[in-house]
Amino acid sequence: MARVRKALTIMSICALALTACAKSDEPGAAPPPGQQQGPVKIGVSLPLTGDFSEPGKGIQEGYQVWADQVNAKGGLLGRKVELIFRDDASDPNRVSSDYESLITQDKVNLVFGPFSSRLVIPAAKVAESYDMLFVEPAGAAAEVFEQGFERLFYAAPAIASDHYDYLADYLTGLPADQRPKTAAYASLDDPFAQGTAYGLRDRLAAAGVKTVVDEVYPPETTDFAPIAAKIAAAEPDLVVGGTQFEDSVGLVRALQELKVQPKLAAFSTGPTLAEFPGAVKGAAEHILSPVGWSATATFTGNQAMVGRYRELFGGAANEDAANGYTVGQIVEAAVNAVKCVDAAKECQDKLTEHIRKSTFDTVVGPLSFDDKGRPEQAHMIQQYVGGKVEIVLPEQARTAELVYPKQDW
Amino acid sequence: MNLLLQGLALGVLTGGLYALLASGLSLYFGVMRVVMVAHPAFLFLAAYLTYTVHTTFGVDPFLALPLTVPAFFVLGVAVQRLLVARLAPDNLAMMSVLLTFGIALTIEGLLGTVYTGSYKSVSMDYATRSLTVGGVHLPYDKIIAFAVAGLTLAVLFAVLVKSRFGQALRATIQHREAARLVGVQTERVAGYGFGVGLATAAVGGTVLALITPFFPASHWVWIGKLMAIIVVGGLGSVVGAALAAIVLGVVEGLVLVTVDATWATMMFYVFLFLTLLARPQGFFGGRLAHRF
Amino acid sequence: MRTVSRGLALLLAALAIAYPWLAPNYYLVYAGALTVMYAAMSTSWNLLGGFTGYVSLGHSAFFGLGAYGTGLLVVRLDVPWAVALPVSALLVTAFAVGIGVAAVRVRGASFVIVSIALVSMMNLVVQGWRSLTGGSTGLQVPSPFPGLHRGETHMVFFYLFLALLGVALLTWRHVSRSRFGAGLRAIREDEDKAESLGVPTGAYKVAAFALSALFVALAGGLYALWFGSLDPIFVFSILIGSYMVLMSLLGGVRHLYGPLLGALIVAPAGEYFLIALGETQIHLTATGLVLVLVVLFMPDGILARFTRRRAGPSIPDESADQRLQGVAG
């Protein structure tokens, strides 16, 4: 008993002594000396496992290609770049704790964003509260920009609801007798996927295209035949899917089986992935999809990125990788412009301010941001023509004519 | 009206597939009183193996079955003898759930490591066409799934009813102690029961690979649905589970075409709770639920 | 003996209270708060699981409902958080009574299935009811302490979770010494016999179910206020529910401090696996194998295996008949 009391006394003294000293990571504290030299550490949390692991991988590879190229050029401000990845297992608790530990424990100089609109908000909250710049490759849902974040920027051409803008322009610009009269929408219950489909829906509805089916399905859905049956019964001219990958494949197959033959079909995300044509075979022909990046574009660094990606990972780069790479390009340009790269508030403030004012040349084209961090450009529209992915809209980027109406699948 | 018929037809076809997928769960519960949370994970293990066979050799996915069915049978016996049989008999239900939960995580992790997290799919030409009967479209892949499920279940019932092993198995399911008293080697039979259950997972996985893209975490979606089916059918009753599967498949199909996908999935749980309130032992046999 | 054990408990409590000041950075405070949250939840899970032997894999349903209840009261009705938290927890408890009446009608396997179904159902409801909950967009809950910076908020919530853990532990101890607890233990040993001896098994089970839901809901409410953003697929997660079970089981379900010990091991171990093996999905396999090994070789938990003496109050290993006599007498 006496021993216990003694231990207690010692402990409380220790505790009291420690109360006096502040934590080393008090916001606004001077950056530790380690940040002024040595490698530039960049912290990233990505879903390498779980529901979002596939795009997570692409973004990780994009970051790696960027870091590889920066280091080949001599680094950021003459210092090597070192990426620190954490797996968030598609779990927001993990995302927060990852960024928390990257910032306060690993003392990273910069953070890059994670994947998925559902994980970006919790991650941005952490970065914001430690005054860190937060450029992210994947949080495109409208809600991300309504949280009052001051240091968040989305490194792609447009937010979700604007992805189909060019297609909406094209369709509403058609002569009245060719314009589709009816449209069916099926969307995954996900802020990004819904955002894309509803952006198009709202514009077409305003132009007088009647919405005949408007279906939302939860992420657990595996059977799309009944949804296709509903669409079949309505016989729409236009079918739009707010999809990710597996549901885009499921929907296309089910629509084929139920013999729905729309004049035009558009799906988000799925058709932009390399696995898509293999999964739906010939049905991919003439399917439209918004895409923020093209492998054939000649924007700053794009061909170098595609080539280096092939050397490092032995395949074709995809849009996720390009988005990751874009984040790197923007931050790199900002760092070179303001000549500092540490976690201190002044430096992060300068970087943020620079990004807000400037336009950046990236692999997805020139990018600039509004005061909420929304990019101000637009997504292109791609179409499978003759089995190949072609850019059909807008006119200045197009590699092939848009085929409308589409052939039967 | 046509839409309703279409929903009904799709529901019946999907229900047949559910019956196949749930039959293994009923067997495990019957022979061991074990809730096998890892069953869907094994389904997707089989789906991945089918994928590998299909892409490596370029053969029809069903040709993977001669490989996967025996392999899964052996695996099932091993799981029962080496893992499940070691659990303490008191509170077996609790421990078996946790054990098989661990197995499910293990499989998911291995699949993710070997195949990466990306989606895989097996596309056959016949998987996108359909048979049209009186304005109702019946997709060939679903017809095939239904037929394979029906065939597998028919073989399963034949084995259970006709063979000596089947009799021993049913005796073990009905009353383990009594079966042992009349000379049934219940331990061995339980092992084989597990093997048969997992063999159905091999078939089910191949069918799943044919009709839906999959990735390592796909199995979570199926756990709740399949569990609901075996409770509504009556735990431990293979016939009950098959009937419940068809009923729930039809209900799901009809709700899908009339309301939406959220409510369709919800129907599984609504039926589950209704069953518990009205008839906890299940609607189609099985007096086990109440006792275990 | 008793004083030593009490002294040990006091020492641990003192250490826990000092922890946020000892931690060298705010990440460790954050991780500590998360660990204490899990400890509080698995201790409350154990109010049901430990006494009655009913395994619920679905307690994350109550966690999520508590979180959404608190969040919605604060966001939609502008209720002060200190009111929203208990109100939401009580609503969840009432809900748990309703579910409990249906759920505890069945035993063992069926009960586990029901608990799994409950999580999926709540996920569907909250995700589908977009106009109220925000659906898949999630619900953003404003911080209750806007004046504090992030690190200070972690410290405040560390103590709030610690207080909840304390209350849960006291409740468990109190129940274990009560007639109610004896009745619950009788249910674990032999439910039919307990019933025939006059234990109101139905009412007892529902009460234990609801009590355990109450604390988990409180943890969920605190989580909502602390974390600030809720998303249905993440709060209604089978994995969160299974963590509560794994922690309790690893530490020892029959012991007061079992779940706490389990949480102290599992939460940091999970972090370690993720950092050491995080590049591939093999860390899932590692977690799975640990679970399999625990279930096979240490089903009674660490406390039962390594201390023959009892660490704190626990459920004694008396025979079922002795216990039933105790209840009947």
Please give a structural write-up.
Helices cover 40% and strands 17% of the residues of chain A. By secondary structure, chain A is of the alpha/beta class. In chain A, helix 2 crosses helix 10, helix 2 packs across helix 11 and helix 11 packs across helix 12 (345-357). The longest helix of chain A is centred in the first third of the chain and has 20 residues, at 53-72. Chain A starts with a helix and ends in a 16-residue tail after the last strand. With 292 residues, chain B is an all-alpha fold. Chain B is built from 12 helices and 2 strands, in the order H-H-H-H-E-E-H-H-H-H-H-H-H-H. In chain B, a hairpin with a 2-residue loop joins strand 1 (130-133) and strand 2. In chain B, helix 2 (39-57) crosses helix 8 (186-211). Chain B starts with a helix and ends with a helix. The relative contact order of chain B is 0.20. The model of chain B is unreliable at 288-292 (pLDDT under 50). Chain C is mostly helical. Helices cover 77% and strands 1% of the residues of chain C. Chain C is built from 16 helices and 2 strands. Chain C has a two-stranded antiparallel ribbon. In chain C, helix 3 (60-77) crosses helix 10, helix 8 (179-189) crosses helix 10 and helix 8 packs antiparallel against helix 16 (320-328). Chains in contact: A-B, A-C, B-C.
Set down the secondary structure blueprint.
The complex is a heterotrimer of chains A (409), B (292) and C (329).
Chain A: H1 2-20, E1 40-46, H2 53-72, E2 81-87, H3 92-104, E3 110-112, H4 117-129, E4 134-136, E5 152-154, H5 165-173, E6 182-188, H6 191-206, E7 210-217, H7 225-234, E8 238-242, H8 245-257, E9 264-267, H9 276-280, E10 288-291, H10 302-313, H11 319-338, H12 345-357, E11 360-362, E12 365-367, E13 380-385, E14 388-393
Helix pairs in contact in A: 2-10, 2-11, 3-4, 5-6, 7-8, 11-12
Chain B: H1 2-32, H2 39-57, H3 65-83, H4 92-115, E1 130-133, E2 136-139, H5 140-162, H6 164-174, H7 176-181, H8 186-211, H9 219-233, H10 238-258, H11 261-278, H12 288-291
Helix pairs in contact in B: 1-5, 1-6, 1-8, 1-9, 1-10, 2-4, 2-8, 2-9, 3-8, 5-6, 5-8, 6-8, 9-10, 9-11, 10-11
Chain C: H1 2-22, H2 26-52, H3 60-77, H4 81-103, H5 108-128, H6 130-133, E1 139-140, H7 150-176, H8 179-189, H9 191-196, H10 201-227, E2 229-230, H11 232-235, H12 238-251, H13 258-277, H14 282-297, H15 301-306, H16 320-328
Antiparallel strand pairs in C: 1-2
